[in-house]
Each structure stands twice: as C-alpha cells, then as structure tokens.
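Bumping with the actual sequence this time:
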Amino acid sequence: MVVKSSIRLFQAGILAKNGDDDRYNSMVILEFFETEQQLSDVVAAQTAMIDRRKTSDLVANFSVLKNPKTNEISLDFLMSSKDKSGEYIVEWNGYRYAEGNFKGRRGVKLFALSERAYGNKASMKFLQGLKNFKAKRIAELTRAPMPEFVPSD
C-alpha cells in the first residue's frame, strides 16, 4: 500500500547530544504530511514496508497499538541493516500517528522516538535489553501530550 498525495509540510528531527542524521543513538521525530487517506491506511503502508523487509532483515518486526479514546495509532517496530564493514545497525522506532490539520490542510501528525545501536556487540546488547527498554519508551510516547504543529508565519 502506498500513501497517496502526501505532501510533507513539516518535519523535524531532534537528536540526542553527539548525534547526527546518519549516526545517532536517540532521536525524536515530529512530522506532518498532507493526505486524504485514513489513518489506518497510512499505518498499513508503513507495516507493509516492514513486512517486505522481513525477507532480508532477520529482526524486522512490528506491533500496532490502537487508542480508542484518542483514535491514535502507535506502531512499535524494529529493523536492522549492516554498515560498510558488515557490522549490524539495529534500530527501534515508536511511531505515534494522529489525524490533524496544519496550515488549513488535513493530514497526519507523527510523533516518534527512534533508538539505534551500532556494531555487532552494541546491537546484541541493545536486543537483549529491548523488551524492558521498548515498554518504557512506548509508555513515554503514548502518555506524552501530542505536540501541536503551529505555523511560524
């Protein structure tokens, strides 16, 4: 499934200290993109991408959590890749989706947390602590107020 007529109107990544776009340990992501699709279809497109990765990524996995009180959907997912030297990079993401408006346009708000580990040893340690770690992060993500997207103009 593909997200149709999506126009990104706002995107920000907030990196933890000593991080950069290519190599970070922790990042908060805020994004708004314009779409007429239902929230469930937007999330389904992301889960389909993760499903496709499963053929080449042994850790690729996800779970979807729906909040009936707020109509938000959270996606908890894990994936990996290898760097140029063949060492693993493992990434966990918690994505929280909500319908919203920005600059008078209808779309989807994304509030997300991303955590990475680099190298085989660090990746193994990351995976061993994942169960407790991600439970804490998902709780933080879903309990925090959804950020408001306010135009600066």
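The tokens above came from a reply further down the thread. The chain has one domain: 7-143.
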